[in-house]
Amino acid sequence: MTAQNSATLRTTIAVEGKARRVGSGTALAGLGVVAFSLTFPATAWGLESFGPWSFVAVRSVLAALIAGGFLLAGRVPLPARAHWAGLAVVAAGVVVGFPLLTTLALTTSTTSHAAVVVGLLPLTTAAVSALRTGVRPSRRFWGAAVAGAAVVLGFTLAQSGGSLSAGDGYLFGALLVCAAGYTEGGRLARVLPGWQVIGWALVLCLPLSVAGSALGLAYEPVHVTGHGLAGLLWAAAGSTFLGLYVWYRGMAEIGAPRASQLQLAQPLLTLVWSVALLGEHLSPAAPVAACAVLVCIAVTQRA
After folding, report:
1. pLDDT for the residue numbered 3
2. Do residues 44 and 115 make contact, with C-beta atoms less than 8 angstroms apart?
3. Which run of H or of E encompasses 133?
4. How far apart are the C-alpha atoms of 174 and 228, rounded to whole Å?
5. DSSP state string for 173-232
6. What is the C-alpha to C-alpha distance for residues 263 and 122, in angstroms, rounded to an integer?
7. Do the Cβ atoms of 290 and 268 come closer than 8 Å?
């Protein structure tokens, strides 16, 4: 074999390997988006059986046990001491803050309403990341971000009769804490596998989750139903652990920009699940607002 043929063969193998990684990475990230899109319907089901505080705490305990099992099976060593502060931010934002605030919001808001508001999460994460890292996005980016925020604010005001409700306050707070958790998790994922980041964050919260479960189950009434158990199990195993596991693996293979494009479908998927699983009736403004937010996010990706 000549040197030229050998080089051609190596190039072909490299291209085919990259194509396989892109295909598998896209599939994994897509599964993560589907898992995330089911979070709000699963939470609405879970609230049929549990109070909001006990639901979030028990969900976190179950997810931590699953994550701890994977970490033990893989004999994963403890993270370096320098990483624990960042893991605490991930735990506070992704494991505790976002699930708790969105669950409280869903006690008064519909899943379709929450899906549109939380559809602003990619833009919020980008803004928090810019502040955290010092990277300055273009004016086009910020213009699209402001436009997306205006769409969501207008939608929430229209749906709430001209004023923000307590549920909307919870949702906007959830955007901020989750964006902080995502930003810090993305930074840690440069030095640790992404699934280990969420795994250690869950384990870090386990003592608090166990205490919260005991208190929540003692003071909030529990009415066990099939929907309630299914919602709890999916929120713990599907959304909190499995979804983040396949999402981070896929993002590692295809990169954050390409993966984030797939996440643009998440709000619309949640709207579909809210109708199919919960029987909600969408207002005409909900899909229009969701599509408008998607357009704004797409512009930020190009910017």
Report:
1. 53
2. no
3. helix 121-133
4. 23
5. HHHHHHHHHHHHHHHHTTTS-HHHHHHHHHHHTHHHHHHHHHHHHHHS-----HHHHHHH
6. 8
7. yes
CA of residue 177 relative to chain centroid, distance: 12
CA atoms within 13 A on the CB side of 128: 20
* Tens-digit pLDDT profile for residues 51-75: 999 999 999 999 999 999 999 999 9
pTM for this structure? 0.82
Q: What is the per-residue pLDDT across 237-271, written as a single tens digit (0 to 9) for each?
A: 998 888 877 877 777 777 655 666 567 678 888 88
pLDDT over threshold 70, residue 21: no
- What is the SS3 assignment for 247? helix
Q: What is each CA distance from 39 to 43, 118, 210, 276, 290, in whole angstroms?
A: 6, 12, 21, 14, 17
State the Cα angle at 96 between 276 and 125, rounded to 5°: 75
**Is the distance from CB of 194 to CB of 244 less than 8 angstroms?**
yes
Which DSSP letter does residue 114 get? Answer: H
Q: Which residue has the tokens 């009415």?
A: 223
Q: What distances in angstroms separate CA 75 from CA 68, 124, 192, 196, one per listed residue?
A: 10, 35, 14, 11
Nearest to 184 by CA among 171, 173, 194, 169: 194
Rg of the Cα trace of the chain?
A: 20
Tokens representing residue 180 in the block: 């902080």
**SS3 track for 49-103:** CCCHHHHHHHHHHHHHHHHHHHHHHCCCCCCCHHHHHHHHHHHHHHHHHHHHHHH
Distance CA 195, CA 178 (A): 17
Q: How many CA atoms lie within 13 A of 216 on its CB side?
A: 22
